[in-house]
Design goal:
55% of the residues lie in helices and 17% in strands. By secondary structure, it is α/β, with parallel strands linked by helices. The strands form two sheets. It has a five-stranded parallel beta sheet with strand order 2-7-1-8-9, with helices on both faces. A four-stranded mixed beta sheet has the order 4-3-6-5. Strand 5 and strand 6 form a beta hairpin.
Length: 242
């Protein structure tokens, strides 16, 4: 069965990674080949967020119980709230041929990469820190103190961009979306991915090649003999005519 790819997408808060992933799924997931991993968290829902769609919102006690059961690929505490990524759901999707996207920070990216070396890491970079701060302010979801903390964390997050396979500078959203999709398509067309997901095709082509050679070789041999004979007769006729 075809295997999907795990895509790890990281960025400082406000750089646009969630918007890009959501736009990718909305516009290009017509064949249902992509999934967004939904994290568990202990923080309160923001306006418009829906349980089991935006996050799995759980209590601290429930989250810590899941940690004890080894249910997460990775988990971390950020701004006094827990975040974690479920193993079982993600692996079921990948084994079903789905590409799965993780929206996580660089620390979680490191932990998942250790467990899934074949994962592809993508970093979304803001065009500047000033632009990032303006986006956080315009979003209107955080207090000035939280924005200050997010900017401090953003500078730390950005310092790890060189640990990623791809970097997208999100200055123009539409262009960044095209770049993100191009990475997905490039991975799907990579030699290793095509060979892994099309084993039966290549095995069948090899078998047909062997059958073709077995059927063609006697014909080729007879053809070569007939051609050599015709060539010799033509040469002999030409010599006689002279």
């Amino acid at each position: 069965m075809a295997q999907g790819t795990l895509f790890i997408v990281s960025a400082p808060s406000g750089a646009g990674k969630s918007s890009l992933i959501n736009a990718l799924l909305k516009k290009f997931n017509t064949d249902d080949s992509m999934r967004l991993s939904i994290s568990h968290t202990t923080r309160e829902p923001r306006p418009g967020e829906v349980d089991h769609e935006s996050y799995h919102f759980v209590s601290v006690e429930e989250f810590e119980s899941l940690i004890d059961r080894g249910a997460f690929f990775e988990h971390a505490k950020v701004f006094d709230n827990y975040y974690g990524t479920s193993k079982e759901i993600v692996m079921d999707w990948i084994n079903d041929g789905k590409d799965v996207f993780f929206d996580i920070d660089w620390q979680g990216a490191r932990l998942i990469k250790e467990q899934m070396p074949q994962a592809v890491k993508i970093f979304i970079m803001p065009p500047s820190l000033n632009t990032l701060q303006e986006r956080l302010i315009k979003r209107g979801q955080d207090t000035p103190e939280v924005i200050r903390k997010r900017m401090a964390k953003a500078m730390s997050e950005i310092s790890h961009y060189d640990e990623y396979d791809y970097v997208i500078i999100n200055d123009d959203f539409d262009e960044s979306l095209i770049n993100l999709r191009s990475i997905i398509l490039s991975k799907r067309c990579s030699l290793n991915n095509v060979q892994t997901n099309n084993k039966e095709l290549f095995e069948d082509m090899k078998r047909q090649e062997q059958e073709y050679e077995a059927a063609w070789m006697p014909c080729a041999s007879a053809f070569q003999e007939a051609f050599a004979k015709a060539k010799a007769e033509a040469a002999e006729k030409e010599a006689t005519s002279k």
